[in-house]
Amino acid sequence: MTLIDHQTWQAAVADLTAGSSVFVAIWAERNADAAIVHLAGRHRGAASVEVLSLATSSLHYPSVGLHHPAAILMERAIQDIHGLTADGLPDTRPWLDHGTWPHSRPVVPYPFKPVTGEGVHQIPVGPVHAGTIEPGHFRFSVNGETIVGLEARLGYTHKGTLDLMRGKAPDQAARLAGRVSGDSTVAYTFAFCRAVEQAMGVDVPPRAASLRGIMAELERLANHFGDFGAICNDSGFPLINAHGGVLRERVLRLAASAFGHRLMMDCIVPGGVAVDLTADSARTMTASLPDLLVQFERLVELYDKTASLQDRVVTAGWLDPLLARRLGCGGYVGRASGQDFDARRDLQYAPYDRLTLAVPCLDAGDVDARVRVRMAEIRQSVALILELLGTLADGELRAVLPDGVAASTGSAVVEGFRGDIFAHARTSEGLIAEVFLRDPSWFFWPALEAAIEGNIVADFPLCNKSFNASYSGCDL
Fold this sequence. Notes:
- Helix content is 42%, strand content 18%.
- The chain has helices at 6-18, 72-82, 161-165, 170-177, 185-200, 206-234, 238-259, 279-305, 307-313, 321-327, 331-335, 343-346, 367-390, 441-451, 460-467, 472-475, and strands spanning 3-4, 21-30, 35-43, 50-56, 60-62, 85-87, 120-125, 137-143, 146-153, 268-269, 272-273, 408-415, 420-428, 431-438.
């Protein structure tokens, strides 16, 4: 870990503000008398992420969010967890602290943004919802049926995951990483393990790297099939949802048959993978995926030919490409709004560094564009899995982690189904001394608040589902 001075910190913030570098994450660690704040970013076009660390004995640091809005939510979380003050932070309201922590500030009603204007009123929704979904509160400001403002409040699923990971052996910590956001368990474990492997100087065997890629693409397929159907369902077209659910279920059954778990939880471990793919499972997957794609293309044709469905999704939930760029949105949200970034292609990690990858990028920025990015990624994932299966080499499944290694740090980015997941880990004497995990949803929630303005209340479910931001991923 290299410590920097305030001048270097401010220069890095200026690069973020100017757009010459991309904000990745900000987090902190603290002992009794001092703290270190870490800022991760990547220069546009660069194939790696740089982490800058600023020490502070005053428990104050210059706010990044003051100049770059993508950092605001994370700085609010730092304030709650570590008691650090980001000088100049535009929004100092609590993010995770709901007034129930022993060291909390006095309990006061959460100060939602005020509602102004003739005829404007508020609709509170959640945190408990009618469906089986995570808890989150939405405060709508509406004029008639038109949404003029939305504010999301999360923190209800905070579980102290990062603190639980500290002091654990890498294998134990990897299990916790895989439970930050259950629908992305493969991607989270993949990212965390890559960070640990970089810190410890471990190379993953080629067969294990390929199996990791197969798992990651199966996870992407299952989630994209489910999202495609759910968006159509929220648009008043449940038929595609029913068939999308069947496709998702078939992928989950393939995963269970091949790797012993429907979500492939705990199948990726530091140094490689915990389970092999048999020749029979490989043949079954090779035979099944093309048929899944045929069924999917029939749904795409139905989607395109249903005028009432197109009327709901086209132009709905428009996200300005300039705002998507400023917030650093990746994944299907960013790529639907002109942000041509995919960690698999641009950060070149195994096994994708030897695969052909076409990244869909649109600029319409609406619900339909986010659906069509998913469509393209479904086709791409099937092609990638088949390519990996066709070139799967024999060999070891896991490299041995060294014991008693001196303190060292590692960072990694993995492209989950939502977008890029960042992991940073510091190891010391074979244990996890410090760790941070960043979900792409940190950038999706403020983007959704902007994209929903001007839409009618009835269109919120489909706009929200087209973003499909993780609650748990931001509550940690």
